[in-house]
Sequence to fold (557 residues):
Amino acid sequence: MRAFVVAVFAFLYLPIALVVLFSFNAGHHASEFTGFSVQWYGKALSNPFLVEALKNSLFIATTSALLAAFCGTAAALGLQRVGARTRALFDALLGAAIVVPGVVIGISTLVALVQLFAVVNPFLASLWPTDQPPRLSLGYGSIIAAHGLFSMALVTMIVGTRLASLDRNLVEASSDLYATPLTTFRSIVLPQIMPAVIAGFLLAFTFSFDDFIIAFFVAGAQTTLPIYVFASIRRGVTPEINAIATIVLCASVLLVLLAQWQLGRRKPSP
Amino acid sequence: MRRSLFRKNLVTALLLAPATLWLVVFLVLPFVAIAIFSVGERAPEGGYQAALTLAQYANLPARATAFWNTMVLAPAGALACLLVAYPVAYYLALRAPQRWRLILLALIVIPFWTSLLMRTYAWMYILGGRGIPALLAYVGIEDLRLINTPGAVLLGIVYGYLPLMILPIYVSLERLDRRLLEASADLGATPLSTFLGVTLRLSLPGVMTGFSLVMILLLGEYLIPTLLGGGKVFFIGNALVDLFLQSRNWPFGSAIAITLVLVSVVVLIVANRISTRLSGARRVDLI
Fold:
C-alpha cells in the first residue's frame, strides 16, 4: 500500500515538476533538455499582452477576495443570530454557489447581466445630461462579482466553522464584566476568527486568480491571465507558457500554504 | 427592552444584507434568467425572443454526442478517481505516521487549489507530440497517439480531481472510532471482513460526498476535454461554450444548462440518500 501511495504522490507532482523543469530549458522542445536558461521568463515578462493580463488578474483577484472576505465574514456572524429556517435557506444557497459548475455560473451570469444592461443603459442615457452617458458593460465588474459569489460562500463556510468552535464562555464572561457588545466583538470574537478570515481571503484570491471558465463567459473585452494562457495554449505549446505556469503555480502554492498555516493557528497571540 | 430587540434585529439584517444581495443578484436571478430563456425562442438574428415553448428541450438530442460523452466519462472518471483515492485516504488516515500525516495532507490539498488550467497543460505537454510519443520514437515505437483520445481525457480527469476525492474520504476515515476496529478483531473477524464490515461501511458517506462532488464538477467540465480531447472528445461544457460564445443560440444553450443543473441535483439527492441510509450524513471541509 505504501508503494501505491508513493506512486500516487509521484503522479500528482511529476507533471508539475516537468513543466517547471522545461521552463528553464534553453532549447525549444519538450523532448530534450538542451541546457539551463531563463530566456523564457524574460520573453514572458516582456510580452505586453501577458503583463496586461497579469495585472488584470491581480486586480480582479484582490478586489473580489477583499469583498468576499468582508461580506462572507459579516454573513457568518449574522447567521449565528438567526433561526434554524433562515439558516437552512442560506446554507442551501451558499452550498449551491459552491457546487454549481463554473460553466453554469458563467453563462447564467452572462445572460442575466446582458438583459440587465439592456434595461439599465437606455435608462441611464435618458437621465444623463450630456451626450456621453456611462454605459454598463461586461468587464472587471462582472468578473469580480461572479468570482465573489463563490468566494463569499467559501469565506462564510470557513468563518462559520471557526465560529461554531468558538468558546462561548469567553463571550459570556466578557459581557458579565460589562463589556459592550462591540468591545466583546473586537477583543474576543475578532481575534479568534481572524485566522479563518485571512485563510478565506487567501483561498478566495487563489480561486479568482486561477479561474478560467467563469471569467471566459463574463469577461467581455477584458483578458485575465488564465484566458490569455488558454488562448496561447490553443495556438501552440511553447516554453514561454511553461514559464508563466511556473510563476502561477509557485504563487498558488505559497498562498495555499499561508492559508493552511493561518487555519492551523489555534490560539492567536493576544 | 423592545428597543434593544429592534437593535439586535437591525444588526443581524445589516450583517446579512451584502451576502443576501449577492446571492439574489448573482445566483438566484441569473438562474431565473436562464430558466426563462430555456422556454423561449431564438430570434432570427440570433438573440432571444420571448415565447413559452418546450422546443429547446425537445431539441436536446441534437447535442446527444456531448451528453453521451459526458454521461459516460463523468461517472467513469469519478469511479477511476475513487479507486485511486481510497487507498491513499486510507493510508493517510489510518496508517501514516503521525508526524507525516499533516505534511502529506498538505501535499494533497495544494494541487487542489492550484490552477486546473496549468495542471491540465502539464499533461498536454507530456502526452503531446513532443512528449512521451517523441521519447517512444527513440526506442522504435512510432506514431503512437496519446493526446486527443478518451484515455487522455480520463487521465486528465483523475489527475485534476483526485485531491477532491481524497479529502472527504480522509475526513470520514479519520473520524472513525478506532475501538470499533479493535472490537471487530477481538470478536474474531478477519482483517478483510473488518475492512468490509466496519471501515468501508463507515467511510461510505465520505465516499458518496467525494463521488458526487467530483461527478457534478465533471458534468460541467470544459478545460480537460478541450485541451486533452482536442476536437474529438467534447463534453456538455464544450456545447455550452459553442452555443453561448460562438453560434449564439442562447435559448437552446439555456435549456442545456438547466438540464445539466437538474442532472446535478439528481446526482446530489441520490448520493445523499445513499449515505444517510448507510449512516449519518457528515459535513466536508474543502480545505
The radius of gyration of chain A is 23 Å.
